[in-house]
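User: My collaborator sent over this chain with a note saying "see what the structure looks like." That's all I know about it. Can you take a look?
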Amino acid sequence: MPSTSVSERAVIFLIGAVQFVNILDFVMVMPLAPYYSGALGINSAQNGIIAGSYTFAACIAGLVGGYFLDRFDRRKALAVSMLGLVMATAAGGFAQGLPSLILARVCAGIFGGPATSVAMAIIADLIPPERRGKAMGAVMGAFSVAQVMGLPLSLKAADLGGWRTPFLGVAGMGVLVVLGAIFFLPPVRGHLDKGPRPVHPVGTLELLGRKDVQLSYLMSSLVMMSGFVLIPNIPAYVVHNLNYPREQLWNLYLAGGIVSLVTLRVAGSRVDKLGAFKVGTAGALLGIVLTYIGFVHYPDWFPIHGLFVGFMMAMGMRNVSYNTLTSKVPENAVRARFMSLQSSISHLSSAVASAVLAPMLLKNLSDGSLVGMDVVAQVSIALAVTVPPMLFIVERRIQARAALATPALAGAPALASQASSEH
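Assistant: Without extra context I'll predict from the sequence alone. Here is the result:
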């Protein structure tokens, strides 16, 4: 029905806005380093500490959030998390040195991690499973929008108004998102409704003891590690090893971001029709082929734009597949807890991947090229090969569980049901 469709679009737009602000807050910090390092007297070697402080804090917040996020109306939890992120981002804009900037980034991670978990839980709660892939694709498109539009605008704002301007600008956008969540999102309390019979409260350890949850977290970890052993060094590899002009890097990211945005929308709807295993496997295989071609044995005739765009397409297909699939693993009552713990595991996996990556790569002092990128690529391929079997196993287990479930217990309540009950 039209009214239901409009309501779902409004929810998807608001959650996409949450993700845009959250992602932009994270991705803009390192590119802004040349702007604030000199002004605050920060050694460039310390920039990794600034980025790592957010990741570490988000990881811890995910673990802690798993214990209490499902106790509250998700709309209120999202508003509080985003308000904390807004204040932390603004604090970054007022930093006076390395300690205050690190403290601001730690606070941003503490609130940004739970904000992402609650946002994804809201999508899974309000959008029925048969349309969830498309919704996930649209929400995940916020990353591409942040990359294509948000990051260049942040750098331009720093050029025009100084390094503090992007922090304060993102904080201002965050305030609008908080207001939107408060006034336009419906209350999301279905997970608090215990129904006519008492429901056994599920503890964190009990949740972690479930086979479906363990497999889902293992899959998430493998996906993140296969990407993050490779992705952070792609710009340096493209410039120094493939001799692509540094000043034209924005062209690659622009093209990759646009393709990624389209891919996420198309792949999301394909997941709804074909299943996560088929779409995710296609993305994983494409990524494996391009990783081998691009980073193990790169042929001179292969266009760099084709490599970059194809790689972004493969990542989009794989990521929307596994995110849609994992959203179906937990029941409504523990979904935010599940998402929060998954976020923590994802951040931890990214950190582990980066730590493993460091000793594998060396910098050629004569030309700046990266030595050992082929080894890193082979590690990425080895991890990526495990993803399709994990998608297959998790999807089969979810299908088997759904087949056994009664209609009253199969899936979360749709937004249409909630809307009709409110009227």
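A starting point for your reply to your collaborator: The chain has one domain: 2-187+203-422.
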